[in-house]
Amino acid sequence: MEVIYEDNHLIIVNKECGEIVQGDRTGDTPLVETLKQWIKEKYDKPGNVFCGVTHRIDRPTCGLVVFARTSKGLSRMNDLFRRGEVHKTYWAIVKNRPPKDEDTLTNYLVSVERNNKTHVVKEGTTGAQKAVMKYRVIGQSDNYYLLEIDLLTGRKHQIRAQLAHIGCPIKGDLKYGAPRSNPDGGISLQSHRIHFIHPVSKQEIDITAPLPHDTLWQALTMHNT
């Protein structure tokens, strides 16, 4: 587990693909429990340790996740997320070139629990939520494109569903139309940067994740457009 930032109220972790942030029906140990144990051992804390989940990223996704070390930190981070004051930037690798090098995508999404998949639907569909994101092409190789994505709403599987809808499923994302899986079982989507004003100290927090240990990521970022 890689801790990128820590203070009295918050911890930011670089999650590996395959890890779950919170417990689910798989019964696998979630990152929040691993982090509690890490805090307990590092600070030699007796009894239960507090660690709150402020947001989640999908299991096959890697990158930055913010946890709260105090209840004050948790409630205030929740307020920031609710007000849209936490700015998240993702990087994604796709096989197909997007229709435009830069665009804002607005769709309406419905999540189906039965197959754990999000679908793009018509506006007005029962249960549909508006989803907005911006993307731009920032790198390319002979076979792949690197996209930078600013997430303006936080819907389930939003980036995966919206990119698939324009014919650009994320590399390795079989669920949304990629032709083959990645060797590590993850998808080529990283929670790359997170930027907000600390809800307690009021300091600016601007954290960027290290690149995944993968030659394709390295190659694409060397050829930034």
Question: What tags apply to this protein structure?
Answer:
225 residues; alpha+beta; 11-stranded mixed sheet; 4 helices; globular
Give a brief description.
By secondary structure, the protein is of the alpha+beta class. The protein has helices at residues 31-42, 71-82, 158-165, 215-222; strands at residues 2-6, 10-15, 52-53, 62-68, 87-94, 102-112, 117-121, 129-140, 145-151, 189-197, 204-208.
Mean pLDDT: 94
Termini Cα gap: 32 Å
**What is the structural class?**
alpha+beta
- Beta-strand percent range: 25-35%
Q: How much is the radius of gyration in Å?
A: 18 Å
Question: Roughly what percent helix?
Answer: 10-25%
Task: Describe what this molecule looks like in 3D.
By secondary structure, this protein is α+β, with helices and mostly antiparallel strands. It contains 4 helices and 11 strands; from the N terminus they run ββαββαβββββαββα. It has helices spanning 31-42, 71-82, 158-165, 215-222, and strands at 2-6, 10-15, 52-53, 62-68, 87-94, 102-112, 117-121, 129-140, 145-151, 189-197, 204-208. Strands 1, 2, 3, 4, 5, 6, 7, 8, 9, 10 and 11 form an 11-stranded mixed beta sheet that branches. A hairpin with a 6-residue loop joins strand 10 and strand 11. The longest helix has 12 residues, at 31-42. The radius of gyration is 18 Å and the shape is globular.
Give the SSE layout.
Blueprint: E1 2-6, E2 10-15, H1 31-42, E3 52-53, E4 62-68, H2 71-82, E5 87-94, E6 102-112, E7 117-121, E8 129-140, E9 145-151, H3 158-165, E10 189-197, E11 204-208, H4 215-222
Parallel strand pairs: 4-10
Antiparallel strand pairs: 1-2, 2-4, 3-4, 5-9, 5-10, 6-7, 6-8, 8-9, 10-11
